[in-house]
Design goal:
The complex is a heterodimer. Chain A is an all-beta fold. Chain A contains no helices and eleven strands. Chain A is globular, with a radius of gyration of 14 Å. The chains are: A mainly beta, B mainly beta.
Amino acid sequence: AQSVTQLGSHVSVSEGALVLLRCNYSSSVPPYLFWYVQYPNQGLQLLLKYTSAATLVKGINGFEAEFKKSETSFHLTKPSAHMSDAAEYFCAVTTRGGTGGFKTIFGAGTRLFVKA
Amino acid sequence: DAMVIQNPRYQVTQFGKPVTLSCSQTLNHNVMYWYQQKSSQAPKLLFHYYDKDFNNEADTPDNFQSRRPNTSFCFLDIRSPGLGDAAMYLCATSRDWNSQETQYFGPGTRLLVL
């Protein structure tokens, strides 16, 4: 079975500092990996996804993530944090469901705090 | 410009009183999903529709039902809400049913059970 583990339920950075949110996956087959962001009282929005093309994936709002098979990781980074980045971030992997289709397995989430 | 719309944004119901949450989409996507998200937890898939085909997750309680009368609309019915059903309910869509598809989420309906 596929799964994702997000290291750190809370991460706090200063405005302008590097953002690093960690995600490790477990999969017996090549995975498809996603990062979603959720602002307070809103739904999830896709930041970026890895679908086996380039290992360095660029997303919206200056975020990027690198797929590292040797480390089974898909960490999310942003060079300089903005106050508006404060949100919950979910790493996700798609897995084959019981009906033969696919479903998305979300990590537990990491809440990012940005200090002025 | 809204793509996935959920109404209402906040719903208060009484213990045991049936409640229906609604979702509509302007994306003409084939797949619609319902997730339950409790505080500080990951979204948990309840079920999804591929077109008219309904797919229930094995651990979704019987108390939860869904209807999709047409491509645009999907409803979540909770027949007898318990206190443990208080959560954010997220509707999502995707163009197709495969592992690479992006899901587009609505803003959610927060359900409070008194």
